[in-house]
Design brief:
single chain, mainly alpha, globular, 18 helices
């Protein structure tokens, strides 16, 4: 299978995550009214989703290494479809949150298997180029998910969004089976005892260079989550922009990430993933230091927006290079390593996003300051130590 075809297939599968996260956001008021609860309580479904994704990564990763990618990925999609239909049928907030957790667990099982499949088929710079192409395809999901949800609400009520997600999940499962797994026998179970599910995690946790890379990605992802958490307040209230202008800026952020992702994929012909990762993270820190200096003076949008777009766009290069460099250390337990990376990324970003809400006082400085702190920590970690010495390297 060509890299482009494989990236298209895996990108469509990993898009399950952002679609499930963002497509229902426009329906919050309608869901609250239907369930008879205040709108902020519907926001609990976001926290439950992040928790379910983290748990899905932690459990699904070791199972994928032990029982094979096909069983875990297709099983995860089946759970996702069932959870989506359960949400659509929910009539109480408690029921919705329970099915949302199940739905997120299935998504976590699916998503944790994708980088492992990529690592199974490629390595080194080739792996980084494939990760970069997958990331480029998946950028479409967060850019279009709210619009998809809004479009569905024109024709039906909020359960229709989750029925759409169920149909999407089933379609992805069929495509994966027909194009990636058909004719491939189920992977033989490993002979390792079950306790290796824990010892494999310990192996990753003891690996200093890999853990630094994991934290680098967690810091970059936290910057994204803090931005998403406060974007509406930032642009629609602080800068008094219309909903249309806000939507354009959000789409522009995704377009900038995609552009830097394409640039990164081209640069991988000449430089290694670790070199480009360090450049991206350093550029992000510089952009956020600029924003911090501006925020003390309550700047206008014309000065503030370019720095913000640059800070967000660097994630388009940081993510694929970090995945590639990190997984070079764990060729035989790549799904377990990916699981720990995903779980810690979601957990750390969720905590820092919650902290940002506690710090918010209506001004720019607390939010931008926390983003800058994340960038500085990530930059310091990215420059500590040398480059990965190859698969399975240990320090």
């Amino acid at each position: 299978m060509s890299h482009f075809r494989l990236a298209l297939l895996l990108g469509a599968a990993i898009a399950i995550g952002p679609l499930a996260m963002d497509a229902y956001l426009p329906a919050f008021p309608e869901i609250a009214a239907a369930l008879g609860v205040p709108a902020p309580q519907v926001g609990l479904s976001v926290s439950v989703y992040l928790a379910g994704m983290a748990a899905g990564h932690l459990v699904g990763g070791p199972l994928s290494d032990r029982y094979g990618r096909r069983a875990v990925l297709l099983g995860g999609l089946a759970v996702f479809v069932g959870g989506s239909l359960g949400i659509a049928a929910s009539t109480t907030l408690g029921s919705l949150l329970l099915w949302r957790l199940i739905h997120a667990l299935g998504a976590g099982f699916c998503i944790v298997s994708i980088p492992a499949i990529t690592r199974d088929r490629t390595s080194g710079t080739e792996s980084a180029r494939l990760f970069s192409l997958i990331a480029l395809i998946t950028f479409i999901a967060p850019a279009t998910a709210p619009a998809i949800g809004t479009l569905i609400l024109w024709f039906t009520d909020w359960p229709g969004i989750f029925i759409f997600l169920a149909v999407y999940g089933a379609a992805i499962a069929l495509l994966l089976y027909l194009n990636l797994f058909r004719g491939t026998p189920p992977a033989a179970r490993t002979r390792e005892p079950l306790h290796t599910l824990l010892t494999n995690y310990a192996q990753v946790l003891r690996h200093g260079p890999a853990m630094r890379l994991l934290l680098v990605l967690a810091m970059a992802f936290s910057i994204m989550m803090i931005y998403i958490t406060h974007a509406s307040l930032l642009f629609q209230e602080h800068f008094a922009l219309s909903k249309e202008a806000f939507s354009l800026i959000m789409a522009g952020s995704v377009a900038a990430m995609a552009a830097l992702n394409v640039t990164n994929r081209w640069l991988l012909r000449y430089w290694e993933p670790m070199t480009l990762l360090r450049a991206a993270i350093t550029l992000q820190a510089a952009a956020l230091l600029y924003l911090t200096a501006l925020s003390a003076t309550e700047p206008g949008l014309a000065l503030f927006l370019p720095g913000l777009i640059l800070a967000i766009a660097t994630f388009g290069a940081a993510m694929p290079n970090t995945f590639s460099a990190f997984l070079e250390f764990f060729p035989h337990i790549s799904a377990t390593a990916t699981a720990l990376m995903g779980a810690m990324r979601f957990t750390i970003a969720g905590l820092l996003s919650a902290l940002s809400s506690m710090l918010a006082d209506g001004s720019l400085l607390p939010i931008v300051g926390l983003m800058t702190l994340c960038a500085l920590v990530g930059t310091a970690l990215a420059w500590v130590g040398g480059r990965p010495r190859g698969a399975g390297a240990a320090e």
